[in-house]
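Team,

Forwarding the record for the chain on the shared tracking sheet. I've put the sequence and predicted structure together so nobody has to dig through attachments.
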Amino acid sequence: MYGGYIKAETTLYDNQTFCVDGLGYRVVSATEKTVASAGVLNMEKPSGSITIPDYVTYNGYTLTVIEIDNGTFSRCTELVSVIIGNNVKRIGMDAFRECTKLASVTIGNSVTTIGEGAFHECNSLTSFVIPGNVEIIGNNAFYCCQNLKNITISYGVEEIRDQAFCGCSSIDNVVIPSSVTIIKHKAFFSCSSLTSIDIPGSVETIGDAAFKDCPSLRTVTIGEGVKSIGGEAFASCSSITSVEIPNSVTSIGNSAFSGCSALESVIIGNGTEIIGDFAFNSCISLTSLTIGNNVKSIGNSAFKSCTGLTSIELPNCVTEIKESAFFGCSNIKSITIPDGVTSIGEHTFNGCTGLTSITSLIPKEGLFAINPNAILGIDKNSCILYVPYGAKVTYEATDGWKEFTNIVEQTVGGTCGSNVNWTLADGVLTITGNGAMDDYHVLRTPAPWVEYATLITKVVIENGVTSIGDYAFGYCSNLTSVVIPNGVTSIGRGAFSISI
């Protein structure tokens, strides 16, 4: 805002404009005797260096300079340096926008807000210190300051808003202080020289595309306390090699790490419940994947084309595997599907041509049909489908699953004494170890194989076992054969009740 200043008056009123030493001012409050820096006289844009003073004197009034108005020095292309006084609280929107020769800015100790676009495209800035009294770095505040290399964000800053440093292609390192609570949309988008970032736990939200397209970014540390990672937050950061997502994070946004082609290792903490669509899409170097035990949903194409993965074990809480979640993961050799899964989307394992075994823990009571496209490209003749004990017949009759020609029931087992174990396979219950079996009760403390009781046709007790516990084989109604070695010295009460 330039020109239009009235001649000297003896009164003072709000929004009055005047000039002192070649700089224009606007009265913010006549009562409080405060003014804003508001431009220069006769539209003569300043060159060289200027100082925004703490106070100005006008017609006998001593006035406190508390603001720099919106657009005050916008496109002052000969401005080289600025010192902002200690009473200024706000640097307005576009205040120094496109001051292309501005190389030095000193901010006073009262500024709390750097407004939207305040230093937009100030391409001569190479370093900038944001003092701790600043609370908000506004939208586009340093947008495309392409030569800005060193940026210091002091403790006290709370918000880094949309595109604040977007396109600052020379910044190679930035420290986020633990006072920051939010990093918003595209805050550091396309900072192509940025090599590392440490996000403290004070930051609750990493905004959408906050660090997208930072191809030199190699090291990312996400502090315990961060709650959500926005969509595309680190997308196309092609140099990141590993990431550990803390337990505090509950959601990973869509495409959060999509296209991170050098990413080799991912650890997802136990607080995460949702892995968004395309979250790790095309992370072609990913070989190590640990998924926390509270994840419930694997998003559409979440790990699509992660050709470096060789095995996947999903946590027990997973209930939903969406469409194309592992599409084109051609080197996966094995995968385990938890028992709580209730839906598997189309194309989920399409193109997983290297699969040699799938272990499904889904019980026959909860089994559901899957679209044949979900397993397209898998060799159903050579890939073994392991299913829960007693569920083979159900899998063989269910659409999708029945395409596998080699369905094998998993061996089940556990302990049944201090040094005694049991296994069940092909209807044969085998008891091994040394010493006595535990005692059981048909109703109160049934034997650990009770859920398979009707499937047991033979019991083999091997040498070393010395006793058969009470009610051990109760309700094994189809039991036809028992092998008991000479070393067994006692058979408990009701050991074979209702069995034979």
